[in-house]
Amino acid sequence: MSPATKTKFKNPRARYNFQGRTCSISGVGSYLPSKVLTNGDLEKMVDTSDEWITSRTGIKERRLAAQDEFTSDLATQAALKAMTNAGITAEQIDLIIIATITPDMPFPSTACLVQRKIGAVRAAAFDIEAACSGFIFGLEIAQQFIMSRTYDTVLVVGAEKLSSIVDWTDRNTCVLFGDGAGAAVLQNRPEAHGLLTAVMGSDGQKSDLLFMPGGGSRCPATAESVSSRMHYLRMEGKETFKNAVQAMQTAAEEALHRCEIDISRIKCIIPHQANRRIIDAVCERLGAKPEQLFVNLHKYGNTSAASVAIALDEAVQSGQVQRGDLILMIVFGAGLTWGAAVIEW
Ligand code: ACO
After folding, report:
1. For residue 14, how many other CB atoms are within 10 A of its CB?
2. Residue 310 to residues 127, 151, 273, 306, 324: CA-CA distances in angstroms?
3. What is the position in ligand 1's atom list of the atom closest to the CA of 333?
4. 302 within ligand 1 shell (Cβ under 6 A)
5. Is the Cβ atom of 132 under 6 angstroms away from ligand 1?
6. How far apart, in whole angstroms, are the C-alpha atoms of residue 95 and residue 97?
7. pLDDT computed for residue 11 by the predictor
8. Largest CA distance in the chain
9. Which of 74, 199, 228, 253 has the fewest CB atoms within 10 Å distance of its CB?
């Protein structure tokens, strides 16, 4: 029995085999806007302190997109870098998947805007919404198209301008989030194995832990919705924390179980960069060593769907991950949603 079945979160009963083609990540890229907002800057905006933010979260600073810089712009920059690193042209892309909770507009999709900006004239394009888990969900969707031989080249991007939905008067949430984007080009490359498995899970019973009440069909924008600050994200921090630890453990154990490997085989663990204490608790429960972890949240805070995509790019560019190494990515987000992926780099 998988150890994952002992915890309270359940994953779908997935059947996994490699009868289809394998799916490799042939290039990754990321983009962070240049404006830095430090904990010291936040001390001037709300009743908080660098000491509180650092000790409770591990975050020291985060990046903010410019006023005229939108999620599609961040995604485009990350995508262009991933395409260069993969050695592909825009015309080669068959499908663009953008994971985001901060699209430029409710419609059209941010993926369509990115398609236009990079000139991927042949590509189908759509957005997915799985909050901070979106990049792993996107990888899994892309993998299905590649394994089934439907498409040869899929671009997956996690991109967020969270600063546009953060309530900058709420110290409980505004210290946690930042903007950024990370991208990956997925292809079948016979010489590289790539994505070995991707786990996805959801629990809508807990959808009220982290949400944005305004702007959808339930609460369209009105003068009243704006004055009651309903167009900003809301979060039950403590409950979210507890659920994050359990769900990430469940997902990671399921992914390792499917690959029939032990955590010690993993060279680099890339967890969702939300809170250093969540990361350490998950790491301890999995029996992982601190040196296996890749952490960059002190620089960027929680960038939701972009978080693990940016971290993957930085782990690769810094040389912490070499071809052939095993990577374990673990995510958690609103929904609730969670996921994990094992990648042979
Ligand atoms: N500065 C100073 N004090 C603060 C701040 C702040 N920025 N924020 C909260 N406090 C206060 C609270 O008001 C509270 O005061 P009180 O005891 O007088 O009421 C006190 O600090 C303790 O607050 P807690 O909520 O108990 O603090 P906790 O240790 O739980 O840390 C935190 C809060 C950091 C939000 C933590 O719960 C957390 O990280 N939760 C998970 C968040 C997360 O990962 N969210 C993203 C999910 S992914 C997605 O989909 C976007």
Report:
1. 12
2. 18, 25, 10, 6, 20
3. 50
4. yes
5. yes
6. 7
7. 65
8. 58
9. 228
Q: DSSP character for 141? A: H
CA distance 291 to 267: 9
What does the DSSP 8-state code read for residue 117?
H
d(CA 24, CA 95): 15
Give bridge partners of residue 338 from the DSSP assignment.
201, 332
**271 preceded by a cis bond (ω within 30 of 0):** no
Distance, CA 201 to ligand 1 centroid (Å)? 25
SS3 assignment, position 179: strand
Q: Can 188 be counted among the known catalytic residues?
A: no
Catalytic status, residue 257: no
CA–CA distance, 324 with 49 (Å, rounded to integer) = 43
Query: Atom 48 of ligand 1 has which residue's CA nearest to it?
Result: 333
Q: Determine contact, residues 322/236, Cβ cutoff 8 Å.
A: no
Any atom of ligand 1 within 6 Å of the Cβ of 175: yes
Low-confidence ranges of the chain (pLDDT < 50): 1-5
Q: Are 138 and 19 in contact (CB under 8 A)?
A: no
Question: Where does residue 4 rank: exposed (0-12), middle (13-18), buried (19+ CB within 10 A)?
Answer: buried
**334 touches ligand 1 (CB under 6 Å):** yes
45, 48, 202, 238, best to mutate for ligand 1 pocket (most atoms within 8 Å of CB): 238
Query: Does ligand 1 come within 6 angstroms of the Cβ of 213?
Result: no
- The pLDDT tens digits of the residues spanning 288-311 come to 999 999 999 999 999 999 999 999
Dihedral sign, Cα of residue 87, residue 311, residue 245, residue 163: negative
d(CA 65, CA 36): 9
Task: Report pLDDT digits (tens) over 167-192.
Answer: 999 999 999 999 999 999 999 887 77
In 3-state terms, what secondary structure has residue 152? coil
Q: What is the pLDDT of residue 14?
A: 61
Pocket test for ligand 1, best of 172, 297, 307 (most atoms within 8 A of CB): 172
Is 132 a residue of the active site? Answer: yes
